[in-house]
Amino acid sequence: SKIELPIVQLHKKNSVDWVISANNAEVEDKKNTIRFISKVIALNQQEKEESTKLSTEMLEVLTKEKIIQTDKKVTIESSNSFTTAVGMIANTEKEEILLLNQVKSRFYEN
Length: 110
Fold this sequence. Notes:
- The protein is an all-beta fold.
- It has strands at residues 2-4, 7-12, 15-21, 24-28, 33-45, 51-62, 67-78, 81-91, 96-107.
């Protein structure tokens, strides 16, 4: 099924881990997959001061596996870094992000 202007919260234990929004989404119930399409923003706020913003044009969420992934260009911004890459696989449960190609990062002093 298709959804316009979706906003989805991914939970970890008793708190919200990621909030994902986009222009559109497609839900594949049989595969437990949500595919966010066009102007995808994923926000992660672990601490009040520290947040991470992920931007891309397509993001798949594998709900059972707790994986978010894309094969498109992705930008990841935090208070002290700015990273771009093409392709990403992130395990939200383990808090691991694997950037696949053309990775470029800048780090800033706070």
